[in-house]
Design a protein that fits this description.
heterodimer, A: 63 residues, 3 helices, B: 490 residues, mainly alpha, Sodium/glucose cotransporter, two-stranded antiparallel ribbon, 2 strands, DUF3311 domain-containing protein (chain A), transmembrane helix (chain A)
Chain lengths: 63, 490
Amino acid sequence: MARRAWYWLLALPFIALLDVPIYNRIDPRWDGIPFFYWYQLAWVVLTAALLGIVYLATRERAR
Amino acid sequence: MSLTAAVFVALVLVASALGFTAARRNGGDLRALDEWALGGRRFGTLLSWFLLGGDLYTAYTFVALPALVYGVGALGFFAVPYATIAYPIVFLLLARFWSVAHERGYMTAGDFVRGRYGSRSLEIAIAATGVLAALPYIALQIVGMKAVLAQLGGIFSIGGGAMPLAIAFALLAAYTYIGGLRAPATIAVFKDILIYITIAAAIVIIPHALGGWKSIFAAAGNALASPTHPLPLLVAPQMQFAYATLALGSAFSLFLYPHAITSLLSARSADVVRRNAALLPLYSILLGVIALLGFAALAAGIHAPPNEIVPILFARFFPPWFAGLADATIVIGALVPASIMALGAANLFLRNVVAPLSGRAPSREAGTTKWLTLAFCALSLVLVLSVNVKFAIYFQLLGGAWVLQTAPAIFFGLGGRSLPARALLAGWLAGMLAATSFALFDGFAPNIALHLGSFTLIGFIAIYAVAINLAVALLATLLLRDRAPQREIA
């Protein structure tokens, strides 16, 4: 896959976190924590993972 | 002296000692500006991670964020999406900025603007904005320290803690003067280890003592509920756009601050920057947990000035020696970024405001920058001790909106083609005026309501101001279109 194509993966955190109505809800809870909070914390981890993937996928080709 | 205070003093002294020994590490001639201000641009992945973590996740964050959640509920949690989407921006844009800066030997955003656009007025505008935004930020680190000192009480809180604050800042100024960026980088390693220990303990001990997260959220929801905002654990529907724009605007402005650019450019390679984009979100998880402590304070029935709730939680739920460790973490967590902010602002001011105005080339030696760093530390201390804290907070908020106005010149400048310098300057001026008048008009609230007929949209002032900035810059570009083509980046 071309390098640019991998970069599109990095659009996902913006969509997932800036469209507030999709996660502005209480249920389902996780260990008593409302969805609003654990969803955003989960996206911290997912974003780190996506960055790791894009880094590894584009590393060799970066000059 | 109590056990808490003894542990606190001991750890702060250890951190200072580390700062003083830092100068001797890594060799390098500290009289050279590159060595003193950027650590010789030799920091590897791990040291950059500690340094950026210590620089961006400041003591003020750790005090103010739970205070915000404690005061307003869900809206205060915007810092989590903010500290998440900032990293794709680092990966895509700031790694490129590193490469350009490295190739051309740039040390600041002002250097980049001068090299990219060849415009001294744009250089001065961008640099002055960064310096103005950095000063209140240093002052707010002192606010974070004050909250801890007030909780320690006794000799630490006499005269609003003026004496211990002055001592802490004298130490900070001294080791920064001697070791440059190496001093905060070395202390950052120690500080970050303390932070991870403190937060790990907090996340285990505090929810357990309060009957688990379910009862914490239930109690906090009851405590915050009001007729105007019946569901405070969620963002009110009319505030959802504000929540998203606060996160987006803050994420784009984070790496435009001089202290962030200083830490970024001390990395050894663009790969170190990219790796850190993937590794730094670990701190954002801490940030989220810390924000939730605001709800824990509500559930624990703490009634106090919001900025003091975190030290109060430590005192209530931790054994005395561990509370001392946690308090020291906050104070050391203030000293690291304050040091980098003073250094970054001083460097930016001398290279890109003073040098172009005096018509001389910026010095390659560290001498004057070191003295100005001391002066900026002193100025911030005076700002907090003599002027009121509210002023510092308003000033910092406005600084955040201002610094975003430098985004078009920097980020467009990374591509092959950008807008002409004069158009960017016009946009910058419009954005600065807009941000300032929104803030004055709105009593320094971060958000402002935009009325379009019967339609109202509440959003972050920095985003509205940067929209005006972009519109003016694009319009000016169209008007200037027939002029000679601007310089291309090689």
